[in-house]
Amino acid sequence: MCVPGVRVVWEFEAMSVQALRARLTREDVARLASAQDDEGRALAARKICARISMPGLTQSERQAANAILEVLAGDAAEIVRRALSVTLARSPNLPRDVARKLAADIDSIAVPVIAGSPSLTEDDLTEIVRSGTVIRQLAIAGRAEVPGKVVRELVMRGADPAVQRVIANDGAHFDAGCYALTFERYRDQPAMLEHFVERASLPMEVTEKLINVISEAAVERLVSRHALPPQLAVELAEATRERATVDLVEQAGLSPDPRRFVQQLQMNGRLTPSLILRALFRGHMSFFEHCMAELAGIPHAKAWLLIHDAGPLGLDAVFERSGLPRRILPAVRASVAAYHSLEMGGQGPADVMKFRAALTQRIFTQFQGAPEADLEYCMSRLEADMHAINEDVPAGAARQAG
C-alpha cells in the first residue's frame, strides 16, 4: 500500500521549524508509507502528532499537518488510528473534521476523543448523545466541561449511567430547565436525584426540592455539604421535618449570606448564646461578627472593627451592647484571641479541619470556663475532625469541612 497523501508527509518532514524535539526521521516517513509495518506507522504517527502539538507552525505547515492527520485517520490499521486518537485527544490542534471522523470510529478509538477533544462542538456532542452507545454517552457526561445544550440532551435521551455521571459532574452546566427536566424524568427514582448531592454547589431552590424527595441518609449528606435556605435550616433544626436534622453551627459556616442567615435565626428565636459560642469555637468568625452586628444593632463593618480591635475595649463594648450574658464573655475573649493567634495554612478542606482542631485545642488549654454542654459539643466535633485528619480527608468528604 502506498499511503494516500504521502507527498504531504515528505513536505512536513522538510519543514524548518525551530526547537522541535520530536523530530521525524526519513525512516519514520518511510514507515508511514509502508503497508506492512503497522507498529512502525503508529510510532511515526505519534511523532507527527507531537510535532503538530508544538507551537510555531506557519499556515502552510499547519495545512500540510492537517492533511497528514486526514491520512492517518483513514489508515486501515487500528493501532495507527488509535495512536492518533490517544495522542491528540485533548489537543486544540486536532481539526474538527478529523475529530469527528475519529469519534465515529470503533470505541477504543472514539472514546478518548469524545471524552476530551475541544474540537468537538456542542452540535457534535449532541449528535453523539442521540446516536451513540452508553459508553459514548458516558464519555460525554464525564467531560471536564459539558455545555448546557448537551446536558439537556443527556437528561432527555441518555442512558441512566450517563445521566448519573452528568448529574454528579461539576463541569456539567445545569440551568433551571435542566434541573427541572431531571426532576421530571426521575421523579419516581429518587436514588438518581441523590447524585446531585455530589456536586460542589447547588442552587438554593434545588437544595430545598431535594430535601423532599431523597433518602434520609442523602439528606444528611446534603445538609453537611451545601448551604440551606435559612428558613429551611431552622425548620430542620426544629425537627419540623421528620426525616432530617441539621447542625446549625456548620450551616452558619456554609451560608453564602451570613447576615440573612443570622436575621432568620433571630426571627425564629434560634440565635442563642450557646449557638453563637459554639460557632465561634468552630472558627466561624464571619458568622460571629454578623451575630454581634445584628444583636448590637450596628453595621457589620463597625462590629468587625470593634471585635478585632487590638485591645479588649472594642470587643467588650460590642458584647455589652449585644445583650448576651456576661458569663460567656471570658469564653468569647479566649476564642477571639485564639483565632488571632493562629494562621490558616491553606484553603483546602484538610487545612480548614486542622485549623479548627488547633483553634479548639488552643481555646481549651487557655480557658476552661465555657458552659459544659458547649465544651462537650466542641470536644465531640474536635474528635471527628482529628479522625478525618488522620484518615487524610478523602477528596469526596472534603467538602463536608464547610
Automatic annotation (TrEMBL):
<dbReference type="InterPro" id="IPR019285">
    <property type="entry name" value="DUF2336"/>
</dbReference>
<dbReference type="Pfam" id="PF10098">
    <property type="entry name" value="DUF2336"/>
</dbReference>
<protein>
    <recommendedName>
        <fullName>DUF2336 domain-containing protein</fullName>
    </recommendedName>
</protein>
<dbReference type="InterPro" id="IPR014598">
    <property type="entry name" value="UCP035865"/>
</dbReference>
